[in-house]
Amino acid sequence: MKYLRNNFFIAFLFLLAYLITNPYVYGWDDQHLEIPILKHLIDPSLFKGDYYVESAVKYFTCWLYPVLAKFITVKQIPTAYLLLFLISRYLMFFFVYRLWLLIGGNFFTAICATAAFFLLGRTDEFLYRSFCHEEFSFIFMFSGLYCFYKDRFLLAALLFGLGVNFHAIYNLFPMLYMVVFLLFCHEQRFKVILQSGLIFVAASLPFLCWQIPISLSRELAHPVSVNEWMPLYLLSCPQNFIFGSTPLKEVFSNAHAWLDNFAPYLLLIGLYVFNFALNQGFRKDKKVHAIIGLSWVLLAVEFYFDYVQPSRFVLDLNLIRVEQYVRFFLMGYTVLLTCDQLGDSKPWLAGACAVLVLSCATTNLIALLVLCLAGLIFAIDAMLRAGPNRGVVIRWMFLGAIIASFLTLIMDLKNSPSVPQYWIEYFYVLMAMGVVFLALLFKSSNPWLRRLLIIVPITGAFCVSCSNAYLYRQLKDSGPGPWVLLRDWEDMQNFVREHTPVDALIMTPYDTPMGGFRIHSDRKVLVCYRDCGIIGFDYQAAVEWNQRINDIQKFKIYTDDRVDQAVLLAILKYKINYVVFMKYYGPPGDNSMLKKVYDNEVFSLFQVV
Q1: Burial bucket for residue 181 (CB in 10 Å: 0-12, 13-18, 19+)
Q2: Rounded CA gap, 298 and 477, in Å?
Q3: Torsion angle of alpha carbons 313, 316, 319, 322, nearest 10°?
């Protein structure tokens, strides 16, 4: 039975559980950018003259694709991506488990914290179901964090530096966390910072030699005024702003808007206070305080350069992503706190923590409500144990503040559609937890019965995720409506790849939500809304993207307008060779300008003659 405690085998089980609950997807999300880059690097005849791909190849400073292009063919990309995805995810789970085993100190808490990470934690940026450079860089990021916690700072710096060559931001942040910890908490702070800094810079030199000249030429040779670039950034990447696409005035326009926009940050602050007050291990962990403290500083910097003194450079740094690190550690420590409460504490205290862990899988506002409820339970218990003392007024004020927050959240959530949705989804899980809690009132000393308080929500979340994954597979293969759109979109790409010249320029509905047409077709595309991501690498290409979108504004998936003028403009201005119409508004057959080539249930393909 020793293999059941083997770290490599446990990581394999986590990978298996993840794949069951999160089906792998090829040709989605960030792959809209990376797959065409890789294909162009392997075969320069593909996407030759595509404004988006050629710009990305020049300015997208990631070494994964130039290296990978030396070893595989275009046809081998899907297999290579799947293999790299499995390797990346396996090593990520291996180091996440080792990290929580190191922090928590025992097998059970590490298992629970790692399982909660991908089942309940909502660190979505770390858990994409498709492969790209980001997933590959997590090998270095999580192994570096593990070495950081092992006090092997020079090795951590080496890993972070190597990771920068594949995804700069995700490995720069943990390096900064380590530097802050060394500066404030290490006896030989300056010596170790200098050593680790030199190692980090040396390991990341390939990236730096590529990126620095690009950044200097962009900022010095092509300066752009705020009034010009800000509307384009808000249009193309609102997720880089603290409050997304919501203007600052609207955030503070009323209490509901304020609560809705601040909910993610209020939840993280609340979890920090909750753990600091109740979790001794959390209080003593100087590393996690360095991570969270610097993250809040970086978020404050992001706020300043988003709304007070806007800066393209800071927006491109994507500092908003530090929220994922804070959420990762606070979620893990909340699971550890729950496991600690399973020891000798009262069942209702452990139960409150367990429900809090489960609520983190829902929405920020629901989790905030449960956090207030858990805080209320712990506060009342502490007051009953303390009895009359000099701090009674402060205790009652604290209790009143929790109750007021609790009632405010109830009022805000009473009409929220997410409440009945998650209530239905987790009803049986909550009922099972209730049964365990009632059993504990009669057999409170049974250790495994106590452990069920955390096992049940994690197992329940696994079952819910399995059900959702099964439903996804069924819909993907045979679902109606938008799922037909998805299947026919891929079918049209495959036809175009096999039956059109390699240098053909294709016009497609620009607002398709299911990934770019380039991925499977291997053809140039006039424009796609997902091309907006180029703004972080090449501003002039983003201007071109916006111009093209405006030129064919009416040529989209759902429209009541005529599209003939948009098609005519695309033919005359951009010299397109083929047009993919939505079948419901496409021409019924051949005409003087267009010849029908192929159609399926949703789309029709015409050649420009």
Answers
A1: buried
A2: 43
A3: -150
What is the SS3 assignment for 363? coil
Q: Is the pLDDT of residue 412 over 90?
A: no
Summarize pLDDT for 94-104 with one digit per residue, the tens. 999 999 999 99
The strand pairing partners of 598, in sequence order, are 605
Distances (CA, A) of 488 to 231, 359, 482: 34, 38, 10
How would you list the strands of the sheet with 578-582, edge to edge? 524-525, 505-507, 578-582, 603-608, 594-599
pLDDT digits (tens, 9 = 90+) for 65-100: 999 999 999 999 999 999 999 999 999 999 999 999
Average pLDDT, the chain: 90
How big is the chain, counted in residues? 609
Mark out the alpha helices in 342-425 (DSSP H runs): 347-359, 364-386, 392-413, 418-425
- Exposure of 459 by Cβ count < 10 A (0-12 exposed, 13-18 middle, 19+ buried)? middle
Contact yes or no for 325/291 (Cβ under 8 A) = yes
**Strand (E) positions, 466-575?**
505-507, 524-525
Using the predicted structure, report yes or no on whether residue 401 has a pLDDT greater than 80: no
**What are the pLDDT digits (tens) for 34-75?**
999 999 999 999 999 999 999 999 999 999 999 999 999 999
- DSSP letters of 436-474? HHHHHHH-TT-HHHHHHHHHHHHHHHHHHHHHHHHHHHH
Which amino acid is it at 553? Q
Query: CB under 8 Å to 378, separation ≥6 — which residues?
Result: 277, 278, 349, 352
* Residue 516 vs residue 96, higher pLDDT: 96
- H helix and E strand count, the chain: 28, 5
Q: Which residues contact 496 (CB under 8 A, 6 or more apart)?
A: 504, 506, 517, 521, 523, 578, 580, 605
Rounded CA-CA distance 222/214 in Å is 11
